[in-house]
Specification:
The protein is mainly α and about 240 residues long. Helix content is about 65%, strand content about 0%. It has a two-stranded antiparallel ribbon with strand order 1-2.
């Protein structure tokens, strides 16, 4: 019989391994996995700098991700995949239609539901292939919608074309994000506290609440909307909110 050796049980008495199997502590296994993960990452979390020289972090991320790139996609094919795909499909399309309708009204149909659906579909296929994370979900969000609406208002005040100005702002943001990724400025997320996250959530909530309330206030202000139609809109809002 091989593999016999002394081990201690929970009462401190010596115990022998008669099965001949190696006994590995769960804590030791966890520590080993953690150590391997830290070695693969290249830096301990508390020692990550706020920024790194140009391209160093980007190349390191490529080296760490490329061995697992194909397996991340291949492992996603299974019996549960069709149900998950359909669930995410309807979730993404509902989000695109909702935000597209709001943007269409705010930009005089220059950016509407059709553009939002096309952008969500194209970027939803292209971005996950390049970002190294196949589970990335693309779609419009509250802050993006508020940014576009504010940009549209600025263009109206300055009497300039909205779409060219919006395109140039996107190019500027692309350059800024490129420099941020090359210098690993995303490492600054380690100094973000829970207060910052909650403040951002409050911003999104206020945006949605304001836009929703503004619509119903406009029902009572617009001359082409009767008082009965305005009250019917309020009733639908209450039923949707509580039901």
């Amino acid at each position: 019989m091989s593999g016999v050796g002394p081990f201690n049980d929970r009462n401190g008495r010596p115990m022998e391994n008669h099965a001949g199997d190696e006994i590995v502590s769960v804590s030791d296994t966890h520590s080993e996995v953690t150590a391997v993960a830290k070695i693969g990452h290249g830096h301990e979390e508390e020692h990550i700098p706020l920024w790194r020289p140009f391209g160093v972090g980007f190349i390191e991320d490529l080296k760490n991700k490329l061995p697992w790139y194909w397996s991340d996609i291949k492992d996603g094919f299974g019996l549960k995949t069709p149900a998950t795909v359909m669930y995410l499909f309807w979730g993404c399309i509902a989000n695109a239609v909702a935000f597209g309708s709001v943007l269409g009204a705010a930009t005089d149909r220059q950016i509407g539901t059709t553009e939002t659906l096309l952008a969500t579909a194209a970027l939803g296929m292209l971005y996950p292939l390049l970002c190294g994370q196949p589970l990335t979900i693309m779609g419009a969000t509250g802050p993006i919608m508020a940014y576009i609406i504010a940009l549209r208002g600025l263009c109206t005040v300055m009497e300039i074309n909205f779409l060219p100005f919006y395109a140039w702002s996107g190019i500027f943001l692309s350059c800024f994000l490129f420099l941020g990724s090359m210098f690993s400025l995303s490492n600054a997320i380690k100094i973000v506290t829970r207060f910052t996250e909650e403040l951002f959530s409050v911003l999104i909530s206020v945006i949605f609440i304001y836009n929703g309330m503004f619509y119903f206030v406009q029902l009572f202000i617009q001359a082409d909307v009767s008082h009965g139609e305005a009250k019917a809109g309020i009733l639908v809002w209450l039923l949707t909110f509580f039901v």
